[in-house]
Amino acid sequence: MLTVANQKGGVGKTTTTVNLAAALAQSGMRVLVIDMDPQGNASTALGVPHHAGTAGVYDILIDVAGLADVVRPSSTYRDLWCAPATIDLAGAEIELVPLVAREARLRSALHRYLENETTAEPFDYVFIDCPPSLGLLTVNAFVAADEVLIPIQCEYYALEGLTQLLTNITLIQENLNPALRVSTILLTMYDARTRLAAQVAQEVRSHFADQVLSTTIPRSVRISEAPSHGETVMTYDPASTGALCYLEAAAELASQPERKRQ
């Protein structure tokens, strides 16, 4: 279970979530994406309806529905599933405040679903896509997951706010989820033509040598276009550089030594 998080917007969280999930599903894995962002962009990219009135993650958090009632198959891959986010999720930050165990509601729902799931095979991966904030939705995602995947944009402000994010993750570890760890960092929006991108990549690698994937995701028009067609770049243009890089990153993610099953 990986939470994809970065409090800075526009760094490629949702793009990374859906394309890694699609790449793994394309490789034969069963993958579940939980969309925790009220904008619902991950749901859009996976071709899962998330209009007002649709049962979604909001209903899970306030105990109106279980994950089994919410999870829908993606329109692109047979083994790719999504729990969609509706606009109702925007109000969940306020509604969660007075509730009991407000930080662990997603974890409880997710564990119940995975333990009672009746399909032939269990999920190999669960990705949780976070909003660009450090509110209760993101806290729920941190508490529910085993690992954090942080996409970092290869631009000047890339590391701004990362210290605060890591501080918050430490607080979650100390108080709510001791098993949580930052396992993966992915460099996104890499422009090989600029010296700045190379400098940012070098700085990130020097600070997080064990977590940074060797694969970088380039700036790509095809990656940006894909969601407008209700697709990931993996199906929109599978031969594009962006699709090939996400395939490579997914293979690297799956082969990380600490994640290999015994």
Percent range for helical residues?
A: 25-40%
> How much β-strand is present in the residues?
15-25%
**How many E strands?**
8
* Name of the CATH architecture: 3-Layer(aba) Sandwich
User: Given the helix and strand composition, which structural class is it?
Assistant: alpha/beta
Instruction: Spell out the CATH superfamily.
Output: P-loop containing nucleotide triphosphate hydrolases
What string gives the helices and strands in order?
A: EHEHHHEEHHEHEHEHEHHH
Q: How would the global form be characterised?
A: globular
Number of domains: 1
Annotate the secondary structure layout.
Layout: E1 2-4, H1 13-26, E2 31-35, H2 41-45, H3 57-61, H4 67-70, E3 72-73, E4 80-83, H5 92-95, H6 105-116, E5 125-129, H7 136-144, E6 147-153, H8 162-175, E7 181-190, H9 195-207, E8 212-218, H10 221-225, H11 233-236, H12 241-254
Parallel strand pairs: 1-5, 1-6, 2-4, 2-5, 6-7, 7-8
Antiparallel strand pairs: 3-4
Helix pairs in contact: 1-12, 6-7
